[in-house]
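Morning run. Coffee first, then this:
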Amino acid sequence: MNYLAHLLLSPPDAAFRVGNLLPDLLRLPQLEQFDGRYRDGIALHRRIDAFTDAHPLTRRSRQRLWPTFRRFSGVIVDVVYDHCLIQRWEHYHEQPLPLFLAEVRASLPELREDLPDKAYRRIDSLTQWLGDYETMAGVSTAMTELGKRLRRPVEFVGLQAALERQQQGFLDDFDAFFPDLVAMTETAMNGSAQK
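And here it is:
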């Protein structure tokens, strides 16, 4: 899953939410410096990713991008599922998405001293543009920008058209998958709370 899902699946605790983003932003030695609620968020991030990667419905979503985008299908589906989450946002959160993201952003200054500058700036920035995933054009743009930053740059030619062709299939997969992820997350957090 991508950033928005990690934020949504976190309890409304600033350090936990940020911890649930950090494994995508920092290397392992940097992650080891965190404790407390950050550590809880980091652990949940890893469980979410492992569950998502192994789930048959996310595998089916990745196959929708084969053969053209097979190599990058996992990361593309992560971003596409954030698009799907935006489409279904009101089913999973009572607060409108712009207000939710503004709340996350407003909580960041209290954590400023705990975070490496690059991670802090990245989290602050993503709270401003995550809503761009509302359209497949926004998803395609995000992937194009990612492709430019790779060691060997990749142009995702034809990606937007491929995403739009498969849009209903992605939504169907997401609608069946996401409740499973929510249930797993709730079980994981309840188990942690009992320790």
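The chain has a mean pLDDT of 94. Good start to the day.
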